[in-house]
Amino acid sequence: MTQNLTAPLIHRRTLIAGGAGLLLAGCDKVVQIPAARKILFAGEDMHRGLQRALSNRDALAPEFRPDQRSPFFRPNGTRDPGTPAYRAMQANNFADWRLRVGGLVATPLSISLPDLRRFPNRRQITRHDCVEGWSAIGQWTGPQLGTILKAAGIRDAARYVVFTCADLYGGQPYYESIDLVDAFHPQTILAWALNEAVLGVANGAPVRLRVERQLGYKHAKYLMSVDAVASLDGIGKGKGGYWEDNVDYDWYAGI
Ligand SMILES: Nc1nc2c(c(=O)[nH]1)N[C@H]1C(S)=C(S)[C@@H](COP(=O)(O)O)O[C@H]1N2
Ligand SMILES: [Mo]
Prior knowledge:
Blueprint: E1 2-3, E2 14-15, E3 22-23, H1 28-32, H2 34-40, H3 44-54, H4 84-91, E4 99-103, E5 109-111, H5 113-118, E6 121-130, E7 134-143, H6 145-152, E8 160-169, E9 172-179, H7 180-183, E10 188-191, E11 193-194, E12 197-198, E13 208-211, E14 223-229, H8 242-247
Parallel strand pairs: 1-6, 4-14
Antiparallel strand pairs: 2-3, 4-5, 6-7, 7-11, 8-9, 8-14, 10-13, 11-12
Bound molecules: ligand MTE and molybdenum atom.
Molybdenum atom binds next to loops.
């Protein structure tokens, strides 16, 4: 079953395409100045509390009309994982792919593609903003991550959700993480379709995360597992994502 939820357009923020600056209202402004961010958000607890105080984390990202979609949704980062394991899944139309849901959950799950598509699906037309200075608008379809985490019985001790991908960077899988506010945000979905077509390899087949209040690099493609965890310590180099660990991108990439 497909729900077509049309959210109100919220022009809370306007991205200047290609520019470093964001036009923001009120006290959000200071949060976008890199130096201020570093000082304000030194320390995770400080970070979470202040971010919540300064902006409404539950607000919806703007949604767009079908005619506003980009004619081509530019792929970025890995465009084809190309590993023997991925090739084997691809050759089989991902019939053997399973999404493993584990960590701090009562019931670990192993979800096939048909099973994933049987959850209630959300469809949303949103804008993807990459830090490299480009944006694209596309329509995504998939179940809400929150539904799946509830189905697995996420435990109270969980604070973050970690996504592990099929593509390798220097031999290690790409990974990302988000907190539970984003994990249970209504527009956070596990997308298996882009613009009404089954998700292609370039954009993250068979399933990729859409976490619409965050910048592009948080939207993990080629999902293999989703783990609820209490802390990001000991995962990768401990900063919560491939780029965070290796290129000093901010873990919190809220837009
Ligand atoms: N697994 C994986 N996910 C990823 C990446 C990647 O290289 N590997 N790149 C990220 C970046 S920087 C962006 S901008 C988006 C690009 O998504 P797209 O290829 O659909 O445009 O995916 C993000 N998720
Ligand atoms: Mo990106």
